[in-house]
Amino acid sequence: MNPSNKRNGNMGPPAIEFHHVCKTYSKFDEYAVNDVNLSIEEGEFITILGSSGSGKTTLLKMVNRLYEPSQGNIQVFGEDIAAIDPVMLRRKIGYVIQQVGLFPHMTIAKNIATVPRLLKWDKEKTEQRVSELLHLVGLDPRTYEHRYPSQLSGGQQQRIGLARALATNPAIMLLDEPFGALDAITRLHLQDELLKIHGGSNKTFLFVTHDINEAFKLGTRVIIMNQGKVCQFDTPKEIVKHPADEFVASLIQSSREQERFWEDLE
Amino acid sequence: MIDYAIKHPDKWGNALLEHLEILFITMVISIIVAVLLTIVVLTSEWVSRVFIYVFSILYSIPSLALFTIMIPVTGLGTTTAIIVLILYNQYILLRHVIAGLNHVDQPIIEAATGLGMSRLQILIQIRTPLAIQTLFTGLRLASVSTIGMATIAAFINAGGLGTILYDGLRTMNIDKILWGSILSAGLALATNALFIQLEKRIYIGTGR
Lengths: 266, 208
Fold this sequence. Notes:
The complex is a heterodimer of chains A (266) and B (208). Chain A contains 12 helices and 10 strands. Chain A has a 6-stranded mixed beta sheet, with helices on both faces. Chain A is α/β, with parallel strands linked by helices and 266 residues long. Chain A has a domain at 42-52 and 91-265: Rossmann fold, CATH 3.40.50.300. Chain B has one domain (2-205): Orthogonal Bundle (MetI-like fold), CATH 1.10.3720.10. Chain B is 86% helix and 0% strand.
């Protein structure tokens, strides 16, 4: 995060920019991501909404170079990421996945300290940060620090996954359906806490989901994807008011119908 | 039968020590060779398949045949036995190393990669500790098989417990046959049990 950016609002380079980004997996002829052009400002909470196979996860994973675009380029704070060593790039970008992927042989503290250890922080600074992060995600450090991942519930594990990704205070966070495997109540709690974490920072969040409620609740702007293309990229309000195409309209329609179903029950 | 054990403690004691010596030297060198081969194998899927294939062919040759084939090359004795035993062990060890390192859950590897670990860091900090149980299973099977095959190595003058068995068979001495069998089987069983205990300890260490 550069300071001039904070002072002048959105005067700095966009946090993430996609220029004509396409992705094909050699086995398939179809585009998983097809000519995507997007500009995301620093501090935004962007949700990417789409069904499975829409290309939303592919789009996300190209930002930290887990996938490479077949065509086009991606810039992070004005820098073409193709020119950055992927390992170095990833250490500056938080990454959270649905299956969490905690390291089962390491304690919670050690899991959270993964990136600080890679960056060779000293012990004291790391310990302090770990305890700070556990507080941030609503877990008591003294209780959880020395436990192992298998001793935690699914919701608690994802809190640790979040803390681990936030460890070095990255300017960008990539979240791939992080709450997809959690029960409805835990999911709502974590959504609210994620909003709080985002609100207290100038971080840029990119959050993939297939749940329209989640996408519209969390996103300051929402990217709606279908068959590799971006159908619409706008604020939730604008999308509801002016759906860009039939797909978006039907998506909103389906959500409305569900609402009606609930009203009928009451 | 007990008489034999009491009268000739030096004979079976020496044979047991020789056997343990063969086991120890074989395992130490086997592990070093296996580590070196692992580094080569990890460079590509193709190389790993070729290595496994070659060692599986070697492994399928009966031990007495391989011992005998090696005599013109390295002569009679312990050295030849140890070389052959190391070759056999590579198949067991490599298979377990590759299986262990590759069977780490995909999301764990994805998270580690996404957080910015290099391939080497993932290998050392994630894959190896998570494979430790499988690696120990490989060590256990290799040790037990070494103890068994080292018995046969007495035929090429390698010494060890096989000598008692061989002498017993040649002179039809039941005591020797029995003690040779009991000692070699007992050593294999004890080694197996020891490794199983170690494997259990390591499991608890991961907090599961």
